[in-house]
Amino acid sequence: MAKPGRVYPQCEPGAAAAMDRHVSRCPPTRSVAAALEHARRTGARVLVIGPRRAVRVDEVARAAAWGLDHRAVGALAQGALPELPVDASEVRARRLLMRGAEMILVRQGGRTVGVIEPEHGMPGWPAFAPRLERQPDRDGEARLWLLRAAGKLGEGMGAPVYAVGGFVRDLLLGRTAPDVDLVVEGNGVELARRLAEEIGGQLLVHPGFGTASLEGATAPDGTRIARVDIASARRERYAQPGALPMVTPAPLPEDLKRRDFAVNAMALTLSPSAFGRVLDPLGGQADLGARRLRPLSPLSFVEDPTRILRAARYAARLGFRLDPSGARALRLALAVPAYPALSGQRLRAELELLAAEPPDRARRGFELMLRWGALALWDRAYRARARRGPGRLRAAARLIAWAQRARIALDPSEVFLIALLLDQPREVASRSLERLAFSGEPLAALRAAVGAAPLAVRLSRGRRRRPSEVAEMLRPYPVATLVGAWLHGDATARRRIQWFLGEARATRPLLSGEEVVALGVPRGPEVGACLGALRRLKLDGRVTTASGERGFVKEWTARRRRELARHKGGTR
Question: Could you tell me the sign of the dihedral formed by the alpha carbons of 497, 499, 502, 503, in that order?
């Protein structure tokens, strides 16, 4: 028993007690295959490949299995790693890990004798309670009620529940996430069912993945709650680059390690006894402060290349940048010759998510993709045009913004896609569309849109064309082709297309088909011809009232009768 007033010695284990000594030096120019053989021979778990650079052997093994065995192992390395002397305190190591260090090299004299990693020998994640109670609106209060309900249910089931991912990231940034992602250390589907019984809403279960979605739930004050996604905590393993992962149950730390970026690898505790604590084992808070996107593995983009498109979306939305380790991971992913296991539907889904951002923000994301060379994922022959590409994207963003203000339905993903393919060779554009899983009529429409330069030229000429002539020229074309012509065209072509989409396309005569029949037009093709003539007169401002239209129809029917009579007379 401790006695009052007595001073007891404190034991500080130091960095040496927390480090893993299974390290070995390896030249950065050695091939992945040779480095893996060296690691197996020496029993190393980490290879030190230069000053403040190292790579985990399990990542070297994955790279070898995925056909990167001839690449230099230095391409996998994490760089600018912090170093500590072997006699440094454990507190110094912990502080480095809390600031987001991916790995700490421990040195003795002039050589590295061990490494400290976030999950090795460093218990006690950084935690604090954000001001969840101070929600700015009813939506925020409804989400808070949902989080408490989920945490209480999980505690009753013996299955801790956490809010994770973008919800936590946006909470710490002072932003509002539209949806809520929950992770359960246990049966996520069972918790989702109980949550649906508790708060209502429509439940959609994906039992093969251990996930469920809940939509349409309502808080006690009547506020409708946004979509809630619930998943069991899991680890992921990729059989080949770009394939969907194989998942197995795992504790929360493993679930966070499988995520794309450190800023999305934080969790918010929902258990009533610790409600509001942020768990951040991988340095996400430090990355938020530095406004950077840091992938959690050198092979992150090789495992799932759609993360590259996601990085562009997050960078544009949050104003973040890809950190140096992310730039290295990007180069490595783009060095893989092909991703046959990566479906076009997944690439297209990420394209649509980025395009759904506000137009100028989406434009910045697509500009990043061009700068990174990421569209080689669509076709290896895709070449970004430094002069034209950004200009096309700015034009696309202006067109989308105009359409949104004018309440005209344009698909932003189609507009940006056409803009990105306009200056590519026809074969590259066609292969890119096929890679994105377009087929049939949509594929034909987008091919026509990319090749709509001749239509743009026709629109630019004949500046004294009557409005009805312009409208009749454009009426046969699908909207995608008009978008392509707008992007190809000069100011005259663009003005005419916008006028057609905003006004002329919806212009109709004041008289209906039945009314023109009542005025003497015979049923059949004559009705359409008469209505078309009325529409042209209205577009040109020559007939503007219903009485004027009735007068024209009477003249039109009389003229048709005379023409028919002459025709009959000529055939006798």
Answer: negative
